[in-house]
Amino acid sequence: MPHIAASMRIATVALTLLFGVLGCSESLAPTDVPLDVPPRDGSPLQTGALSYRLVRSSSAYRVTVQATLVNTTGAPIHYRRCAPTHRGPMYRVARTGPDSTRRFFVDWAWACVGGVPTGVLANGDSVVVNVPFGSVDQPQAQPPLQPYELVGQFRIHLELCEAYADDSDHCALVPAPRRQSNAFLVHY
After folding, report:
1. Domain span at residue 6?
2. Integer Cα distance of 125 and 76 in angstroms
3. pLDDT at 162 over 70
4. What's the whole-number mean pLDDT along residues 108-118?
5. How does residue 21 score in pLDDT terms, banded at 50, 70 and 90?
């Protein structure tokens, strides 16, 4: 049974990424939306900066966005974990702002085991997540990867739970405004 649960979790993550990347509208051309640095807001998860530049290596564009959550709720915060040894919360990334309906691509995905209990962040403690952006070159991709698919305004959403769960897969997530980062810009 654990193998089936793990396979189902991996399939769910893969399908979520596929629909997230392919299912979004492409109604805007790459130059239709200005890529402005968004103002900082009071979101519970705060990034270290508001603007991040993708850095070119010999075969990829990469940048890591670091974000910190400080538990000021007066109670423990529970979060989904990917594996028993994983200390931090799982997260996802979504576009926000005027280009929020465009396609977005990153070349990583969670590949987790099932049956992992939620983690806990005690009141007053903090957790830092390092979120990768960018991709290795994809010359054979069909359809071809477009430059605008790597850049734009984004938010990180932590997988925070309403309560403890024996299996992170089955925790009820808190509403998005209580687990999202401030908006930030990723650009070339």
Report:
1. 2-187
2. 9
3. yes
4. 92
5. very low
CB-CB contact of 173 with 103 (8 Å): no
Q: Residue 163's domain is classified under what CATH number? A: 2.60.40.10
Residues 170-185 pLDDT 10s: 999 999 999 999 999 9
Domain count, the chain: 1
**Dihedral angle computed from the Cα positions of residues 89, 93, 94 and 99, in that order, rounded to the nearest 10 degrees:** 150
Calpha distance 162→82 (Å, rounded): 17
Give me the phi and psi of 119, to 5 degrees please: -90, 170
- Can you give the chain as a three-state secondary structure string? CHHHHHHHHHHHHHHHHHHHHHCCCCCCCCCCCCCCCCCCCCCCEEECCCEEECEECCCEEEEEEEEEEECCCCCCEEECCCCCCCCCCCEEEEECHHHCCCCCCCCCCCCCCCCCCCEEECCCCEEEEEEEEEEECCCCCCCCCCHHHHCEEEEEEECEECCCCCCHHHCCECCHHHCEECCEEEEC
